Amino acid sequence: MDSNLFELRCFFGGGIRVYYTIRNQQVVLLWVGGDKSSQSRDIEKAKTILNTFE
Q1: What InterPro entries would the database entry show (predicted)?
Q2: Nearest Cα to Cα of residue 11 among 36, 28, 44
């Protein structure tokens, strides 16, 4: 993953993952998430969204 991209794992249900970054000391949710089965696609989507901030 990108050094500015972080993953928050929620250990309920199917092990949901939510991706976020930190900008100017604020957490920015990238509105991408999923479970293990979609992890690779979710990371690519999160990177695309993250690149719009840069």
Answers
A1: TypeIITA-like_toxin_pred
A2: 36
Q: Model's pTM, two decimal places?
A: 0.74
Q: From 7, 26, 20, select the one nearest 50 (Cα to Cα).
A: 20
The domain ranges of the chain are 6-53
Tokens coding 5: 């991209």
SS3 track for the chain: CCCCCEEEEECCCCCEEEEEEEECCEEEEEEEEECHHHHHHHHHHHHHHHHHHC
Task: List, for residues 15-33, the tens digit of each pLDDT value.
Answer: 788 889 998 898 888 888 8
> In the structure, what pLDDT confidence band is assigned to residue 54 with cuts at 50, 70 and 90?
low
